[in-house]
Design goal:
Elements: H1 3-39, H2 47-70, H3 92-100, H4 102-150, H5 158-197, H6 201-255, H7 260-288, H8 291-307, E1 313-318, H9 325-346, E2 351-358, E3 361-368, H10 381-390, E4 395-399, E5 406-413, E6 425-427
Parallel strand pairs: 1-2
Antiparallel strand pairs: 1-6, 2-3, 3-5, 4-5
Helix pairs in contact: 1-2, 1-4, 1-5, 2-3, 2-5, 4-5, 6-7, 8-9, 9-10
Length: about 425
């Protein structure tokens, strides 16, 4: 880590440690409010709505702690069970759901120890650096005071200046140690918070079931949409061509004896219609599962796709084998959708695709130097990529600031088979 980055990292840890002190103090009134709301629970029109309001505040505080923990590479998943149907705010059903959720009590159990750990680690992070800064400024302070009082006939003792000279390197050393220790102290605080705020094994299984239910529904919807697209393409394309072909042949049979020239013309039109129908069928089959994907794998298919793009696209692939067919297909169409969005909307002059596989994870990065500003909420393309990857427990991350560049990172867990002798890299 470079010195500048290390300093920035340490300063951020100190500032977040400073923030942890008032946040830790905030835990205490939240705990008191929850206990009061719990005691007032039997009181009509008071306890039920008050408990719900307090729990909204407690969960917001716990969610903030989870976001802060993520900054130190300590991810904490939200463990809350989904609200049941008809659980309106302020209602008895929502009240029972909140109190029956084990995550509620884990949040409440964290408030007091979380306050103590936040304050302690925050004070340590801030205190070490503050003590080092005090040592650094001691020398100029002694010199300033000595110069100021000298004009009044008061001579500053020489040993005080000596103490200032000695305190400077000590203060610099302590400050450096404090900046180095602050991220570790905040990491320990995040690890402690995860003991309470992370989901239990049962909650993880419940969340996993919910996630699988959603992804299954998305997969079913995607398959239904794909079938509708195929039916529409067949009806509007190849089927219409074949009907036209049959009509042309029928007319040719009727006029072949009395007007051979017209019959030949009709047969020529029929041949042209059959050729067009074959082309449309090939495109349709290619849209279901491209032959190049089956023959050359994800690497070759993406390179072939890049060759037909209007924007020069570099493909850098280091895949030592092939994934399962459904995974390859999902990755290919996700890359195709990302590149199609780039071609239509980005105004880019160049693009790139990087594919890697490590630790059981296929990672594909699609980027361009366009205008940026891509937003999944403003179109269906990026949302479609997310749904397609979610079926295989994959994720999509988008970085697209105004002015670019746009980088789409897609990850899917998978294993590779049929290892190649050497990886390839080149330009498509």
């Amino acid at each position: 880590m470079e010195t500048r980055e290390w300093l920035r990292y340490g300063v951020r840890a100190v500032l977040l440690g400073l923030l942890a002190i008032p946040l830790g103090v905030l835990n205490l009134p939240l705990l008191v409010l929850f206990l009061v709301a719990l005691l007032l629970g039997p009181v009509p029109l008071v306890g039920v709505p008050m408990t719900q309001v307090v729990m909204v505040l407690v969960r917001a505080r716990a969610d903030l702690e989870r976001r802060l923990a993520a900054r130190w590479n300590v991810p904490i998943t939200r463990p809350y069970a989904p609200a049941p149907t008809g659980a309106v705010p302020g209602g008895w059903k929502r009240y029972r759901w909140l109190l029956a959720d084990p995550a509620t009590w884990r949040d409440v159990a964290w408030l007091l120890p979380g306050a103590i750990s936040g304050i302690v680690f925050g004070v340590l992070s801030l205190g070490l650096c503050a003590y080092g800064v005090q040592g650094i400024i001691l020398l100029p302070l002694w010199l300033y005071l000595g110069t100021g009082w000298y004009g009044y006939g008061i001579y500053w003792p020489l040993h005080s200046v000596g103490e200032g000279l000695l305190s400077f390197p000590q203060g610099a050393l302590i400050l450096a140690a404090g900046l180095f220790a602050a991220p570790w102290l905040q990491w320990l605080n995040a690890r402690f918070a995860r003991l309470f705020l992370a989901p239990t094994r049962a909650a993880e299984l419940r969340l996993r079931v919910t996630e699988l239910t959603v992804t299954r529904a998305d997969s079913v919807d995607a398959q239904a949409a794909e079938l509708r697209r195929i039916e529409r393409d067949l009806h509007d394309g190849a089927q219409a061509r074949l009907v036209s072909l049959g009509m042309a042949i029928g007319l040719a049979e009727e006029v072949v004896e009395r007007d051979p020239a017209a019959a030949r013309k009709l047969l020529a039109e029929a041949r042209e219609s059959s050729t067009t129908a074959l082309v449309e069928l090939r495109h349709l089959v290619r849209g279901i599962h491209p032959p190049v994907l089956a023959e050359r794998g994800l690497d070759g298919a993406v390179r072939a796709l890049a060759l037909h793009l209007p924007v020069p696209t570099t493909v850098d692939s280091d895949l030592a084998g092939r994934a399962e067919t459904p995974v390859e297909s999902a990755a290919y169409f996700a890359v195709a959708e990302a590149l199609a969005n780039m071609s239509r909307h980005s105004g880019a002059r160049r693009a790139w695709v990087v594919m890697r596989h490590a630790a059981g994870m296929l990672t594909v990065v699609v980027g361009d130097d366009g205008r940026g500003g891509a937003d999944p909420d403003r179109g269906t393309g990026l949302r479609g990529i997310t749904r397609r990857l979610a079926v295989f427990d994959g994720t999509m991350t988008l970085s697209s600031p105004r002015g670019g560049p746009t980088v789409v990172t897609m990850e899917m867990p998978c294993a590779l088979s049929s290892p190649k002798t050497s990886p390839s890299s080149g330009t498509g």
